[in-house]
Specification:
512 residues, 4-stranded antiparallel beta sheet, single chain, 11 helices
Length: 512
């Protein structure tokens, strides 16, 4: 059984294709050799190779204008400017571009967002999805209808775990509330997504500049870029007599596509674009089931990584000020995010990884460890931490069902420990990962916002934690009893390293 986690997105691959996200094979320009104990390979363009850069500046108009001139003089091209947060996206084939811009007065940080040049890379996916067909038997459909359920809802153990089924009988959420899915794109033609999809709040942010052309927000390749469509269904699949039910079936979802074509990598310029777009287009909650590529952790003593983290932090802060609650999946590496040291042998993931030992206190996982992000760990059908889920004292805010097919079994009639949701082309399939836990929380946040429309983003985050159902630390945690995923849960009742303040509660969200 291959239990290796996929770190590119927050979903996991498992055998027999029952869950769909796997390891990625990448080809591209090799990174330079400069490194230190907290760093990694330093990106540097070779002659004729173009890289993408983030330049973080002061926000006054004069500084921004002058820095843009300096970008051009350093053989760079301005792609997008986010003046309100002082972030400029630029392209350049000048090997010294980053160093030159860091020396400019008014520039706080600047660096390459990737170690591969701006060209296509190859990708290899392992495993195929376990698709689930909607029942056609009239007796089965009649039984579901009699139980006030969607046709496939009996398989959704995850919704029962957070009391979303009970919440739906009281309040399904407001159409005035929209959750932005920052991901691989959403297939809005799916019959279980189309009724709740908001096209006017959707865009393609790949490259760092928003494209609102109709359909630009859809996946590049439906067979590969299914992740965002799956996430969208977990949040807001409507109760319309079709397929499944979302956590908040009455709210809207929008697609903010940020994944590169072919590689499906999530670079910072696209993420910044998506977060700012969401803030400026009335989106109340964003779901972030990914980490910002190419670094699993971004160290503040590495100029390029520092610039990446700073740009996304600025975008989160801006969005929070506009009332956007940022929900982020904690990751699938089974790492203790509060540890003094973590070994990262996966970064950079767009060229050649370099093994490094980092301190997460100074090398955050972006965006989940940034200020203003609600970080979500994952549980399985038995309400235990999923074997793959990251954890950490004071690093996890809340938890939610993301699945654990390897070590936890759901109660009947559910037969799969993964999370069932929508897939492109009208299909349904199981996936597992903190990618699936995050959207459960985003859905509950949308329910809270629906019932407390004047609540700020900070207040929504507080209510998520205050209303969560406490989960105590297990006496022993060693799935499989082999030590592979053994972990030590620490903390106090109501706030521990595995579950934060507990598992989110959809029923409390509509009654308190």
């Amino acid at each position: 059984m291959d239990l290796r986690p996929s770190r590119r997105r927050r979903a996991l691959a498992v055998p027999l294709g029952l869950v769909l996200t796997a390891s990625l094979g990448l080809a591209g320009a090799a990174a330079a050799n400069a490194q230190d104990s907290d760093g990694g390979a330093a990106p540097k363009a070779k002659a004729g190779e173009k890289l993408s850069y983030i330049v973080n500046t002061e926000t006054d108009g004069g500084t921004v204008k002058r820095v843009k001139r300096e970008i051009r003089e350093a053989d760079g091209k301005v792609v997008a400017t986010y003046k309100k947060i002082g972030v400029i996206v630029a392209h350049s084939s000048n090997p010294g571009f980053g160093e030159a811009l860091r020396a400019v007065d008014g520039v706080d940080s600047a660096g390459a967002t990737r170690t591969a040049p701006l060209k296509a890379a190859t990708t290899t996916e392992v495993g195929k999805p376990h698709f689930v067909k909607e029942p056609k038997a009239k007796s089965t459909l009649a039984k579901a209808q009699a139980n006030d359920q969607e046709p496939l809802e009996s398989l959704q153990w995850d919704k029962r775990a957070i009391k979303a089924d009970k919440a739906a009988k009281i309040d399904q959420g407001s159409k005035k509330v929209t959750v932005g899915v920052i991901d691989t794109g959403v297939d809005d033609t799916h019959p279980d997504l189309k009724p709740n999809f908001s096209a006017k709040q959707s865009a393609n942010c790949v490259g760092g500049k928003a494209d609102t052309t109709p359909g630009a927000w859809r996946p590049y390749n439906a067979d590969e870029d299914y992740h965002g469509t799956h996430v969208a269904g977990i949040i807001a699949a409507p109760r319309n007599g079709v397929g499944i039910a979302g956590t908040a079936p009455g709210v809207k979802v929008a697609s903010l596509k940020v994944s590169e074509p072919e590689t499906s990598l999530f670079y910072s310029e696209a993420v910044v674009c998506a977060m700012v777009f969401a803030a400026d287009h009335g989106i109340e909650v964003t779901n972030n089931s990914y980490y910002v590529d190419p670094w699993l952790y971004n160290c503040d003593n590495q100029a390029d990584q520092k610039a990446i983290a700073e740009s996304v932090q600025r975008a989160i802060r801006y969005a929070q000020g506009k009332g956007v609650t940022t929900v982020s999946s904690a990751g699938n590496s089974s790492h203790d995010l509060a540890a003094a040291e973590i070994v990262d042998d996966t970064s950079p993931n767009d060229t050649t990884p370099v093994k490094r030992t980092i301190n997460p206190a100074t090398c955050p996982d972006v965006p989940t460890m940034l200020n203003g992000a609600t970080s979500v760990s994952s549980t399985g059908p038995e309400n235990l931490k999923s074997y793959y889920s990251n954890y950490g004292r004071y690093e996890i805010d809340v938890t939610a069902p993301g699945g654990d097919r390897a070590f936890q079994t759901p109660e009947e009639p559910a037969k799969d420990g993964g999370v069932l949701s929508t897939m492109p082309n009208g299909d349904y399939a199981y996936l597992q990962g903190t990618s699936m836990a995050g959207p459960q929380v985003a859905g509950v946040a949308a329910l809270i916002k629906s019932n407390h429309p004047k609540a700020s983003a900070q207040e929504i985050s507080w209510m998520l934690k205050a209303q969560a159902q406490t989960l105590p630390c297990p006496e022993k945690y060693d799935p499989g009893n082999r030590g592979t995923y053994a972990a030590n849960c620490t903390g106090v009742k109501g706030n521990n390293s595995f579950y934060g303040h507990g598992i989110v509660d959809a029923l409390a969200a509509v009654t308190k």
